[in-house]
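Exercise 7. Predict the joint structure of the components listed below.
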Amino acid sequence: MGEGYHAHWGSPHAEANAIAEAGRKAKGATAYVTLEPCGHGGKTPPCADALIRAGVKEVVYAHADPNPETAGRGPQRLRAAGVTVRRQGRAPKYVRELLQPYLAHLECRRPWVIAKWAMTLDGRIATRSRDSRWITAEKTRRWTHRFLRARVDAILVGAGTVLTDDPALTNRSGRGRQPLRVVVCGRRPLWPRARVLSDGGPTLLVVPQQFRAPPDVDVAVCGQLWKVDPHRLLGELYDRGLRRVLVEGGGELLGSMFDAGLVDQAAVFLGPRIVGGISAIQAVAGRGRARMAEALELEHVVHHTIGPDQVIEGYVNWASGNR
Amino acid sequence: MGEGYHAHWGSPHAEANAIAEAGRKAKGATAYVTLEPCGHGGKTPPCADALIRAGVKEVVYAHADPNPETAGRGPQRLRAAGVTVRRQGRAPKYVRELLQPYLAHLECRRPWVIAKWAMTLDGRIATRSRDSRWITAEKTRRWTHRFLRARVDAILVGAGTVLTDDPALTNRSGRGRQPLRVVVCGRRPLWPRARVLSDGGPTLLVVPQQFRAPPDVDVAVCGQLWKVDPHRLLGELYDRGLRRVLVEGGGELLGSMFDAGLVDQAAVFLGPRIVGGISAIQAVAGRGRARMAEALELEHVVHHTIGPDQVIEGYVNWASGNR
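Solution:
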């Protein structure tokens, strides 16, 4: 017997892991899989071929793959090689939950969205004078580079955050890749000497309407009057091949993403300090929910402590908050 | 050798605990204590007498007791019984930190103040329509009754909280005592049919100016124009014998307490939900701090998980935030 799962995008699929664990016992065995085995080579070789080579006799799967690049091709190849292939009725709830991130991408044609913010114990991301340095400890900020920035294709921030913080938005962990920096602009023109526009690294400006951009800046128009439409924004990023993005704020951008129901995962960092003030800046602005029972709930929540700070991470429960 | 500490108000003092642990070995020993041993019987018998009975030969203490009820009396009794008593120079920083809560009471003549709030992961204590039911799970709310409400002399809330939530503000844990309910009023008149005024339990109304109160309601005037002065409020509570109070909100009351530098300890409850909205209600209002570097820091922070929720507790660092 062998078991396996797909750890993350670009790594071996569940089938390859299970075959490796089973070794010789795979010969003549039945493979039970959640998603139909793929029949195309993407980041990894097709799983159908691996199952055939391993001598698997039968494959039972729970959910068809809606990805047009592979749908039906895996089962077809398996059958052509004499392997029995069965789909086991309707996929049970836990299988659908497990596959949700993958299915969401394909069905909605948008990247997986992680919302991240650091806040004080009274829930502020900046003081009334928009000062946010620093809420968490240096160790915690290094952690976010290594475990968040190094693992996404793009980092999104609003133009207001660029104006007040002038962040570099780079992955300074020394590992993984450099995410594309995406600045979402509204009415506010972007400060041309901002670090993200002047340090030579790639940056994408997303604007609501065509405007005179500096000549060598990449611009995408995703607007509705004076506001960038979050659905069009994510569609644009998906079309550019970005599959996993990190939204780092400010509150206005996070609010519009939450209001549009487009956040899949959240990572909240809490520094042990209290800033107070009726006009201090909140983490998630926008319209929000009228009733607490409509709040979006996180599930599969994990907490960890990094130095003096706390991190709370979880997946947005798609069934909560009438989303 | 024996060690001991004073766990909480009303329980045996450190000396009694250390003597119990040392047993017979206390005879002829030297006792090292932070605060001078007390010479009066309060909630527990005088420590000086216990030390004498145990046969301690010498007592070294780090900090004199400023409490006029006992100051100097313990050392005097000890010396009269032939025990050598020495004060060890100036109290080191960690001793002063350890004694801070006790010293604060005596020096400032005000109760120890615990601020408590439950908030969403985006730092809100209510939605834009002031709905706050519920942010945390029932299990967590039961925990607050047992470990916070049952252990304080009074619970303070603002009149706004009474208007929107109409809370009972009772300790429903089945343990400990019933705290006095204190409602801090501002311009807003208190709803006369509010539960805290009509359920027969004791409630104290704190108002900025004399007004026509319902005949059988206990009223204290602690005002400055239209606003209750938080220093006068705490002085009044201290004079009524209340030594440990819990401020449960709303944001306006918590803000005025934090602005006045009157919070000693904070307990923040986080429910795994996100409500969003630019006009959702924040945990700590008031004026707040202009710079993040001026934020009040918590120290000796502990985190714990209760069901789906997180609790972060700590002591306000008196040296932080230029308080």
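Discussion. The radius of gyration of chain B is 22 Å.
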